[in-house]
Specification:
73 residues, mainly alpha, 3 helices, 78% helix, elongated
Length: 73
Amino acid sequence: MGLGPTELIVILIILLVLFGGSKLPGLAKGLGQSIKEFKKASKEEAEAEKPAAPAEAPKKEAAVTAAKPPAAG
């Protein structure tokens, strides 16, 4: 159910008729800025959640190594 080249051309023609040639660059710029802000916000949220997981991992390793009995040698 993807959009083919014919469908995209029809959509672009409809947009051109509805908004006119002078407003399309402004609409495209606004859309691009919106996508940029969305990606930035989702990246910041993912980074905020990341540090919690690695901080716990070394504590578990330290607990495992401390619980092991010394090797007989």
